[in-house]
Design a protein that fits this description.
The protein is of the alpha+beta class and 206 residues long. 22% of the residues lie in helices and 30% in strands. Strands 1-2-3-4-11-6-9 form a seven-stranded antiparallel beta sheet, with no helix packed on it. The longest helix is centred in the N-terminal third of the chain and has 14 residues.
């Protein structure tokens, strides 16, 4: 879980670290508590916040989940106004060294915790298992190209191009491509329990 990853989002590691630290402090969480909630070591959390370690997508997702938010909010500022066009070059892209990428298609909208993304997984690549999001979270997935093995709480489902599925986001879910071509799928996620995992304030680390 502590291997180096590749973040290709137009955001520097220092800026990403500052945003994670800001979200943590806004929730009154210490580094130790965020490490406990996310299952990431304290040293890893500290290095990510300082911008000296590039997190994998799974690590970043665990941190976002522990903070009760989405990866999108860690990568971008909230949009202002009633409409926002995201040109292709402006979209945040996360590339994982194992051979897959996630492109965030939705802007960050105030207090709304919603994420719309396009994921490409190379042939023979296992994107790994994501931890359950907050209770009440929902995910909607549609396969555009190739085939996808979606595993929910240990049970696999084989999906082909054109198939779609809904499942609760507050369960373990994993994605893998056992085919011979790229798998491309779209995923919309609503994060439940918006706000904060903890109301009690601690003394956030500097």
């Amino acid at each position: 879980m502590e291997g180096e990853g590749v973040l290709s989002s137009g955001l520097s590691m220092a800026e990403l670290g500052q945003r994670i630290r800001g979200e943590r402090q806004a929730r009154g969480l210490s580094i130790e508590r965020l490490a406990e909630l996310s299952g990431i070591s304290r040293s890893m959390v500290s290095e990510v916040e300082r911008g000296t370690k590039t997190p994998t997508v799974l690590v970043l997702d665990r941190l976002a989940t522990a903070l009760g938010t989405s990866i999108s909010r860690l990568l971008d500022e909230p949009a202002h106004g009633a409409m926002r066009v995201l040109r292709h070059a402006e979209q945040r892209v996360l590339r994982d060294p194992s051979g897959w990428e996630r492109r965030v298609l939705s802007p960050v909208l105030g207090e709304v915790e919603f994420e719309f993304m396009r994921t490409t997984i190379g042939p023979g690549v296992d994107a790994g298992e994501f931890v359950p999001h907050a209770p009440g979270s929902r995910e909607y997935l549609a396969v555009e190209h190739g085939s996808l093995r979606l595993t929910i709480n240990g049970r696999p489902y084989e999906l082909a191009a054109g198939d779609s599925v809904y499942y609760p986001g507050d369960c373990r879910h994993a994605y893998a491509n056992h085919g011979t071509t790229d798998c491309v799928f779209y995923l919309a996620m609503e994060v439940g329990g918006v706000g904060h995992h903890e109301r009690r304030r601690e003394s956030p680390d500097a």
